[in-house]
Amino acid sequence: MKMAFRWFGKGFDKIPLEYIRQIPGVTGVVATLMDIPVGEVWPKERVKALKEEVEKYGLSLEVIESVNVHESIKLGEKDRDRYIENYIITMKNLSEIGVKVICYNFMPVFDWLRTELERVLEDGSKTMAYKHDVVLKIQPKNFAERFTEHSEEVELPGWEPERLKEISETLEKYKNINEEQYWSNMKYFLDVIIPYAEKYDIKMAIHPDDPPWPIFGLPRVITNRNNIRKFLELNNSPYNGITLCTGSLGANRENDIPSIIREFVKEGRVHFAHVRNLKFESDKDFYESAHLSRCGSFDMFEIMKAFYESGFTGYIRPDHGRMIWGETGRPGYGLYDRALGAVYLQGLWEALEKTWRKKDI
């Protein structure tokens, strides 16, 4: 298991690499280029400079999150091949600096969705929360405007300004797309890019839909065990895999996260993992808690045990954290709580390693 930490890049992230390097056990960052418009090529000189910046601080750059997929590809529009070609060039450029995994998603229009970005908890910490009734009552365009207003003047991943400007037009296009067409468009994308993933030795790791149910009538497909199986069977290459996000999949209480982990890790199809905890307030209402099991609704020991027992050797990062100790910044992506999460997850892993070692004696 390799512990990494998400970093949005110099000028886009308040957290310096110098601080990330000081988190015990964190050996690399999961980075991105926030200013490259969706669908455009990530230039060689930019990705090379990114790698050099990261390595100056003794950290590795082997996972990229996210090379976003253009809506034309998701919609199956006539110009999709141009954007797929750009995607492949970006893959090649990233492979040349040693990137081994690309985390991406196929969520339509919106990326992850929350109704509150600064819910104040009893202990005074702030966190993100989701209330399903709020989503049912609000218009998508109004929701996007509200989301942007409360984002602490930072750009949120999946909520880039250029995507939100065209939200009404894009939503209108999706009215002509049913779920099966969406699956077909996904397969088209995979069948073109996966041979290049094999050629460049980059594992493609799709992120589950967050939350894992339909939003605003849009198709949401990477939502449960059966749909993950269907996705992997669209292209059987081992380079076609998933990012197993415990928070995204776990938002649906019917998803047995340890079981899903065991099934797909053993098959070698989990290339990356986001590990976090949630606290349910009802079946579809939750807030993002501290990583510690008793702070939320997940058994984090059983989750890490499933990864360990299945032989997971890939990349893990602590996912969304609370804002604690007066920190301000990008919601979900502060330094302190995620650092605590990284150390906690490694503590569970160490306990598992030592316990199993004794069993082998």
Automatic annotation (TrEMBL):
Gene3D superfamilies: Divalent-metal-dependent TIM barrel enzymes. It is an enzyme of class 4 (lyase). It catalyses: D-mannonate = 2-dehydro-3-deoxy-D-gluconate + H2O. Its cofactor is Fe(2+); Mn(2+). Pathway: Carbohydrate metabolism; pentose and glucuronate interconversion. Its EC number is 4.2.1.8. GO terms for biological process: D-glucuronate catabolic process. Keywords: Iron, Lyase, Manganese. GO terms for molecular function: ferrous iron binding; manganese ion binding; mannonate dehydratase activity. PANTHER family: MANNONATE DEHYDRATASE. Belongs to the mannonate dehydratase family. Catalyzes the dehydration of D-mannonate. This is Mannonate dehydratase. The gene is uxuA.
